[in-house]
Write a structure and sequence with these properties.
The structure holds three protein chains of three kinds.
Chain A lengths: L8 H27 E2 L7 E2 L1 H10 L1 H35 L3 H16 L2 H12 L4 H8 L13 H13 L1 H12 L3 H9 L4 H30 L2 H7 L10 H11 L3 H27 L1
Antiparallel strand pairs in A: 1-2
Helix pairs in contact in A: 1-13, 2-13, 3-7, 3-8, 3-10, 3-12, 4-8, 5-11, 7-11, 8-10, 10-13, 12-13
Chain B lengths: L7 E10 L2 E11 L4 E5 L6 H9 L6 E6 L2 E2 L5 H4 L1 E4 L11 H11 L4 H14 L15 H14 L4 E5 L7 H18 L2 E6 L2 H6 L3 E6 L2 E6 L1 H6 L4 H6 L6 E10 L2 E6 L2 E4 L10 E6 L4 E3 L11 E14 L2 E7 L6 E5 L10 E7 L4 E3 L5 E4 H5 L1
Parallel strand pairs in B: 3-8, 3-9, 6-7, 7-8
Antiparallel strand pairs in B: 1-2, 1-4, 4-5, 9-10, 11-12, 11-14, 12-13, 14-20, 15-19, 16-17, 16-19, 17-18, 20-21
Chain C lengths: L2 H28 L24 H8 L2 H32 L8 H11 L3 H14 L6 H25 L3 H9 L4 H29 L3 H6 L7 H7 L8 H21 L4 H6 L2
Helix pairs in contact in C: 1-11, 2-11, 3-6, 3-8, 3-10, 4-6, 6-8, 7-8, 8-11
Classes of the chains: A mainly alpha, B alpha+beta, C mainly alpha.
Chain lengths: 284, 374, 272
């Protein structure tokens, strides 16, 4: 409209105010605490170099990062693969769309729950005297150390798979359902094998959904430490200590404020890079 | 509803979008009390122009004058302009009645007054019986009528319609054209019709502006654009079926200048002086005749050629015969009757050279055959 | 029936059991007497293996347990309400004015980044922030933190929905004489309708389920049901049945939202 009443910038002002009321302080504090360390009752001392050196020589950190990559990587792989199989199975083997949708809704339930609830549900199952072992022993089998040092991380992955497979499932299902039926009819006319049909017809359509689902799950798996906080506490030993949990420990248990800030800052930088990659992929 | 109908003047209008110019130095005068057609292919800038006249967008440079009053910085309401959009833009959450009433509610009229006016306009556009329905329940034609009613109801001086018929069936389009015509005559309002359909120009033939690539190429009535197109684009666009184009070389033969083409050599008393020795000949499908015996008078101006039938499309009570003559595209001939021919058959076709259009190689119009032959 | 179909259905059934199993376990635990919870053989069928008991739910309703749900409700609802209009304005800007300053792709990307920020990296500074302001363990602290974190999600969702409202509707409204606020109020919002409701529901759900900040920013006065859960594990005897009961109660709003807004679920993650 010819009369310029206001600039679109004003549309962004409210959220900018809201966000910066917190973000500003957070960033400033992180940078400051990375640069300067203030021991209780003492003076701020320049700590940036120390922090960096510590970070790069911290083997516990290194292991935590490896563990995080393993945890998020394996978890994502299973969730995406399983989600894809279930999505395709739903479409292939249940023809009635109302039934299909109802079943889908049931599958989506764990995703709607809080991580806190899901964690305690699985705690009931995994704890040494819990349901899984009760059932095993009832069947005459030996109990399993679900939360033992060797199995804890796997159990956590299992719990996460239970809760979040439905996300890739949902995305891939939506993509699969948008494929025109004629393509499959053509494929069967040409007598393509199931595998070939998948590669030529299905995959091109669901590929985007798979990639988005994988990125989302990977990101949210390394971001979230709820289950670790509630089920295993990073242990036994360091068995389930991911990067996030390690930072949590530094922040609230060991109270190494400066070092915790360093690690947090490093993680944020990494998160920004990953978000950028995600953004670029979404634009395609 | 006081009617004050201004003439519209656009002076040096330029507009950029996404970094490129979509309106290049537009200068146009639109008379009042007229139904004005702005014709042009998609992406020629028609919509942009319409929005600027309406006041939805501001031009980067230039002015808009309504009867010498500068309205460039005024909005649609102050300009008293209404618009009918391509997708009708009816408010889906309101009934047809409330859609039409919408501009009036902003004017803070009494409920009674609003009701009266809405019913009046609805009656005029014959949709009174559908007023309680929602847009999703209306047919294309009905939606169109509601959109027009909404544009009319506030008594605007100028109504701009942006490709209003593009989403309607052909038959409904005919009805709506008639409605528009009736509207203009009865209410006397300025109507500006933005269209890519040449038929709209042929129906509302008095005021046409042809637009292409953000520029006004030619302004005039239908006869002017039909007989004296400024360039190939205009010539192609105006006409029920696209004009045929035949490249020709100017050569010497027996001390006379002759046009050498794929379909034969044409001898003309004079040939316009051109820089190149190439020329583009245009001949409309409706000016070519098939199967007539030699025409006695004007025999000297008749040109005959042969072609192989590629296909004969019967459309309604007419036939379009596509003749292969060795050019990139077949020559289209409009036969006014049902004329069934099998592909492969060789036919004789004739036209009067007075009907030819001559263009230079850059597409600019030179003259008609009739100008040379007298 | 073809063999492949049979196998496929069996596979789906197994997956179904996998999903429903733990849910079922939670529910029956919630209606058990504490002594019935972990037994060998496990007591899995009500009335047959064990007598259902309202012990867990009684506990919740007779102690502060019930207040934790109210706290969650207050906090999630308030934060969502505060974030809504600013987010709508911003989403409108991103959708309709993508060339304008602060409304362009880069700004949108910045917002997206905020969504992917690991909470564990910022909990400490945020905790200290509120502590310094003397607002530790208060409603404003948690509510405002939630507001900040719900904005990216809300804007992300709303932008996609505003994109789907045809711009010509707003043009028509402009021609009819409606100014910006009027257009937003009378046209854009009503047309957004259920999409707006879905956004509110999904943002609210995200906050209702949140755990980390609730844990650290709350204390003894501000306790959400998620932060309450670990409190039931202090001491020798873990109150498993109460844990189950809280899980059941806390799951009700998510399930209602899941059913009501099922059509919008896909949009959450595609943002389209």
């Amino acid at each position: 409209m010819p009369k310029k009443t206001f600039s679109p910038i004003f549309l962004q002002v409210p959220i900018t105010v809201i966000i910066w009321s917190l973000v500003g302080f957070v960033l400033a504090w992180l940078i400051y605490s990375f640069l300067y360390s203030t021991p209780p009752g003492g003076q701020p001392t320049f700590a940036a170099l120390n922090n960096i050196i510590t970070m790069f020589s911290d083997s516990r950190l290194f292991n935590a990062v490896l563990r995080t990559i393993y945890y998020a990587g394996v978890g994502t792989a299973i969730e995406v693969l399983l989600g894809m199989l279930v999505a395709l199975a739903l479409v292939n083997f249940i023809s009635n769309s109302t039934v299909r949708f109802a079943v889908l809704m049931i599958f989506l339930t764990p995703m709607a729950l809080s991580e806190a609830i899901a964690s305690h549900t699985w705690l009931m199952l995994l704890t040494p005297q819990g349901y899984l072992n009760s059932i095993l022993r009832f069947l005459g089998l030996p109990a399993v150390g679900w939360l033992s040092e060797s199995m804890a991380l796997t159990s956590l992955i299992l719990a996460d798979v239970w809760q979040w497979t439905s996300l890739p499932l949902l995305l891939i299902y939506a993509a699969r359902v948008s494929i025109p039926q004629e393509l499959y009819e053509m494929a069967s006319l040409e007598r393509l094998s199931a595998f070939k049909t998948f590669r030529v017809v299905t995959w091109p359509y669901i590929r985007n959904a798979v990639v988005v689902a994988a990125l989302l799950r990977f990101i949210f798996m390394y971001i979230t430490i709820d289950k670790i906080l509630l089920i295993t506490f990073g242990g036994p030993g360091f068995a389930t200590e991911t990067l996030g949990y390690y930072i949590w420990m530094q922040s609230f248990s060991y109270r190494n404020i400066s070092y915790a800030a360093t690690l947090s800052l490093a993680t944020l930088i990494g998160a920004t890079i990953i978000a950028y990659i995600f953004w670029r992929m979404m634009k395609r | 509803m006081k009617q004050f109908l201004p003439t519209i003047k656009l002076v040096d209008i330029c507009k950029k979008s996404n970094g490129s110019l979509i309106l290049k130095n537009i200068n146009l005068e639109i008379p009042n009390k007229a139904l004005y057609v702005v014709l042009g292919p998609p992406r020629s800038g028609k919509s942009a122009l319409g929005r600027i006249i309406a006041g939805l967008d501001t031009p980067d440079t230039g002015r808009i004058l309504f009867d010498d009053q500068d309205v460039t910085n005024l909005g649609p309401v102050e300009r008293n302009v209404s618009m009918v959009f391509q997708d009708f833009a009816l408010y889906p959450h309101l009934t047809a009645f409330d859609n039409i009433a919408s501009p009036l509610r902003k004017l803070k009229l009494l409920k009674e007054e609003i009701r009266k006016r809405v019913l009046e306009v609805a009656e005029y556009l014959k949709i009174s019986h559908r007023l309680t329905h929602y847009p999703s329940e209306l047919s294309g034609g009905e939606k169109q009528r509601v959109a027009i009613a909404r544009a009319l109801v506030k008594g605007a001086q100028i109504i701009i319609l942006d490709e209003p018929f593009i989403r309607l069936d052909l038959k409904i389009r005919e009805d709506m054209r008639a409605e528009l015509y009736r509207l203009q005559k009865d209410v006397g309002v300025n109507i500006i019709l933005l269209s890519s359909d040449p038929i709209d120009a042929m129906v509302f033939s008095e005021n046409i502006a042809f637009m292409q690539n953000g520029e006004i190429v030619q302004v005039g009535n239908l006869t002017e654009l039909y007989d004296d197109p400024k360039n190939i684009s205009v010539a192609r666009y105006i006409g029920v079926i696209e004009m045929n184009f035949i490249p020709a070389k100017i050569t010497q033969e027996n001390n006379r200048k002759v046009l050498d083409t794929e379909i034969g050599k044409m001898a003309l008393p004079t040939i316009p002086q051109l820089l190149e020795d190439e020329i583009l000949i245009g001949i409309r499908p409706e000016h070519i005749h098939i199967g007539e015996e030699d025409v006695p008078s004007h025999a000297g101006n008749i040109f005959t050629f042969e072609g192989r039938v590629k296909i004969a499309e019967v459309i309604g009570s007419e036939t379009i015969v596509h003749l292969d003559v060795g050019l990139a595209e077949p020559i289209r001939v409009l036969v006014p009757t049902i004329y069934k021919k099998n592909p492969g058959e060789v036919l004789k076709a004739t036209f009067n050279m007075r009907d030819l259009y001559f263009f230079d190689v850059s597409g600019r119009f030179i003259c008609r055959g009739g100008d040379i032959l007298g | 029936m073809k063999l492949s179909r049979l196998l496929g259905l069996i596979g789906l059934a197994i997956f179904g059991l996998f999903i429903i199993g733990p849910l079922y376990i939670t529910i029956i635990t919630a209606i058990k007497n504490i002594n019935d919870v972990f037994t060998i053989p496990p007591k899995l069928i009500p009335y047959t293996d064990f007598e259902p008991s309202s012990e867990a739910f009684d506990f919740i309703f007779n102690t502060r347990g019930k207040y934790t749900f109210i706290t969650s409700l207050i906090v999630a609802s308030t934060a969502t309400a505060i974030a809504l209009i600013p987010s709508l304005l911003a989403a409108y800007g991103f959708s309709r004015c993508p060339k304008a300053a602060m409304n362009d792709e880069r700004s949108f990307f910045t917002l997206l980044t905020l969504r992917m920020v690991p909470p564990f990296a910022v909990v400490l500074p945020i905790f200290l922030y509120w502590n310094q302001l003397g607002l530790f363990d208060t409603y404003p602290a948690l509510i405002w933190t939630y507001t900040v974190f719900s904005v990216p999600l809300a804007v992300w969702l709303l932008k996609g929905f505003v994109d789907e409202v045809p711009p010509s509707i707003e043009d028509a409204a402009k021609v009819d004489g409606y100014g910006f606020l009027d257009r937003l109020r009378k046209f854009v919002i009503p047309i957004l309708g259920p999409a707006l409701a879905a956004t509110i529901a999904l943002v609210w759900l995200f906050l209702w389920n949140e755990f980390l900040f609730a844990l650290k920013l709350g204390g003894s006065r501000v306790v959400t049901y998620t932060a309450y859960l670990p409190q039931l594990r202090v001491g020798q005897r873990i109150q498993w049945n109460v844990l189950g009961a809280i899980g059941v109660l806390g799951a009700i709003p998510p399930l209602i939202i899941l059913i009501l807004f099922r059509k919008y679920l896909i949009r959450v993650y595609l943002g389209r």
